[in-house]
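To: structure desk
From: M.T.
Subject: fold request, one chain
Message: Could you run this one when you get a chance? Sequence is below, nothing fancy, just the single chain.
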Amino acid sequence: MKPLAVLVRCPGTNNERETAHAFELAGARVAEHSLERLIADPTPLKEARILMFPGGFSYGDDLGAGRIAALHLRTRLADAVRAHLDRDGLVMGHCNGFQILVQSGLLPGIPGPDGGPAATLALNARGRFECRWVPLQVVTPGIFLKGLAEFSLPVAHAEGRFQTASPAVLESLKAKGQVALAYRGEGYPDFPNGAEERIAGITDPTGRILGMMPHPERFLRREQHPDFRRLDLPEEGLGLRIYRNAVEWAS
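Reply: Done. Structure tokens follow.
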């Protein structure tokens, strides 16, 4: 049977359809559920092999990107998510989903100074929303980025500047191989937000939770790349590889 990917929607989520399509192309079954519905009845998570938080603007980002969804996740769904992870399930979050995972503490999965948050995604260095394709470099392939090295994906965020709570946290992430993806550009606009160490994506210590600011669901076929007529690209967009890797591992 195909592994089940459960996509979590919140008011303001707007990338669930593209993400569901990506998982279906990768060979998964997909079920979409609102966060409120899962809080009321987390039973669907018992069958899930992949738990996905798509991008968008959950709860309007009214208190900051991902904060309200993360509060619900941390206080009302934590036991069900922990049980999912204890069953060797995977968790993914892109853009706003990454912000939710960081604000909830699922990422980076280590305590910060004095037990507080270990990281955050702050306002971009230029103080504005950035929407563009950027070059990326895989730092630690792990489960999700296997077979990828250098590729490009679009970003669309205002709060994507990854920052750790202390130099010790940053060194711990690097030492444990939790830095998964980095912006390859040396300066703006290829490096769009000023993140520490150009970090674009991280995992937890187990490697089974991935959060990243770029949008792989927007590069599923070559024609979606802005330079597809000029570059020698495979028919399948490289963003789809990330979903294929997750589905293959979860099967």
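Reply (cont.): The chain has one domain: 4-250. Let me know if you need anything else for the meeting.
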